[in-house]
Write a structure and sequence with these properties.
Layout lengths: L4 E9 L6 H10 L5 E2 L12 E2 L10 H4 L4 H17 L12 E6 L5 H14 L8 H5 L3 H10 L5 E4 L5 H14 L5 E8 L4 H9 L28 E9 H6 L6 E10 L12 H14 L8 E3 L6 H15 L7 E2 L2 H4 L6 H15 L1 E2 L22 E2 L4 E8 L3 E9 L2
Helix pairs in contact: 3-6, 7-13, 10-11
Length: 408
């Protein structure tokens, strides 16, 4: 018999708040976290703006020197989610039934670039002995496991911008099928490194606008690319019976997951939207509902011309050309956190269900007649939600969709 899976904890480090609660308040108020990039000199680049995490200091100062910024974000947000859940490994949960799955798109790129510069300037023998264990993409999951004593498996999922959503989906499946009692699931990313950032600039993926209020504009006719963000977001997924037995608070239920690949192009989604639509349909079918029962979609919504058009087309394939479902992109406020996007957007969906509030797509001033859905422009709405869906799509054709349900 399949197990029901619920959410019992949340944690977030984002450009608009370094806790899940502060993050959510900023979302409801329609605040963005976009400003001048401070991590490195952008004078030679066309792109000057990003969504950086502010006022972040990793609590373990000694441990910080052994971790890339991605792991510092990941451990902080994951620890917050565990604290929120009330789980204590070895006390109210068996460590071998408690796991972690952390998604990332890039890994420890800041450390890679720093060490390459060191090798160039000082000689290759000066490269840090910690280089490899600081940069490998699985290491945020490993650091989280070490910090929180989770032994049911520690996995890193690397599916570009779908990684956070895939992590939550795979955790859902693992608990549903009885392989774990609880899993810390989400994503972390810290890709503000000059060479990496320049790669995104040179592929013309990023917005080149210099107005922070007009550069992250998903679904707007004048959109010109995404804004890079950084941070981490995690949920605690737990078997319902395990959660009830320990008297845990239950935020909502996870009821469906879809996972497909376009098998089309290195960076572009398939223009017909079929792969994205299939992922949505799979998640809806697993949830045992009809498309019309979905009350809100948190879109991938990057603000690139191609993504917004293809995602809209995919939603119409599943929900009908005259779909009335509210769709919003919170990337208009956070920027695009790449592999961590699905993690923080899952937090958005859970909070939306709890509070009965649909977040807005801010900066949406010029409607695009080629799109035509309800993108909740500029101001959120109070509405009771039973089902909320989150979409994530990544370079390589990766598609992921999660469906959350109000817990009754």
């Amino acid at each position: 018999m399949y197990k029901r899976v619920v959410v019992t904890g949340m944690g977030a480090v984002t450009p608009i708040g370094n806790t899940a609660d502060k993050f959510w308040i900023s979302i409801t108020e329609g605040k963005h976290g976009i400003g001048e990039i401070t991590h490195f000199d952008t004078s030679e680049l066309k792109v000057k703006l990003g969504a950086e995490v502010k006022n972040f200091v990793y609590e373990n100062r000694r441990g910080a020197v052994r971790m890339d910024r991605i792991s510092q974000f990941g451990v902080t947000a994951a620890a917050a989610s565990v604290k929120d859940s009330g789980l204590i490994s070895g006390e109210n949960i068996d460590p071998y039934r408690f796991g972690v799955i952390c998604g990332t798109g890039i890994g420890g790129i800041i450390t890679i670039e720093n060490e390459v510069r060191k090798a160039k300037d000082k000689g290759i023998t000066r490269v840090s002995a910690l280089l490899v264990p600081m940069v490998i993409p699985n290491i945020p999951a490993g650091n989280i496991a070490i910090a929180l004593n989770t032994k049911a498996g520690s996995h890193g999922i690397v599916t570009a911008c779908a990684a956070g959503t895939h992590s939550i989906g795979e955790a859902f499946r693992s608990i549903k099928h009885g392989y774990a009692d609880a899993i810390i699931a989400g994503g972390a990313e810290a890709a503000f490194a000059p060479v990496c950032f320049s790669g995104f600039v040179n592929m013309t993926a990023l917005s080149t606008r210099c107005d922070p209020d007009r550069c992250s504009t998903p679904f707007d006719k004048e959109r010109d690319g995404f804004v890079m963000g950084e941070g981490a977001g995690f949920l605690i997924l737990e078997g319902l019976e395990h959660a009830k037995a320990r008297g845990a608070k239950i935020y909502c239920e996870v009821v469906g997951y879809g996972d497909t690949c376009d098998a089309y192009h290195l960076t572009a989604s398939s223009p017909d939207g079929e792969g994205a639509a299939k992922a949505m349909k799979m998640a809806i079918d697993e949830a045992g509902i009809k498309p019309g029962q979905v009350d809100y979609i948190n879109a991938h919504g990057t603000g690139t011309q191609h993504n917004d058009l293809v995602e809209t087309k995919a939603i119409k394939m599943v929900f009908g050309d005259s779909a009335k479902v509210p769709v919003s992109s919170t990337k208009s406020m956070t920027g695009h956190l790449l592999g961590a996007a699905g993690g923080i957007e899952a937090v958005v969906c859970v909070k939306a269900i709890i509070d009965g509030f649909i977040p807005p797509t801010i900066n949406l001033r010029v409607p695009d007649e080629d799109l035509g859905l309800d993108y909740v422009p500029n101001a959120g709405r109070k509405k009771e939600l039973t089902y909320a869906m989150s979409n994530s799509f990544g370079f390589g054709g990766h598609n992921g969709t999660i469906v959350f349900k109000k817990y009754i």
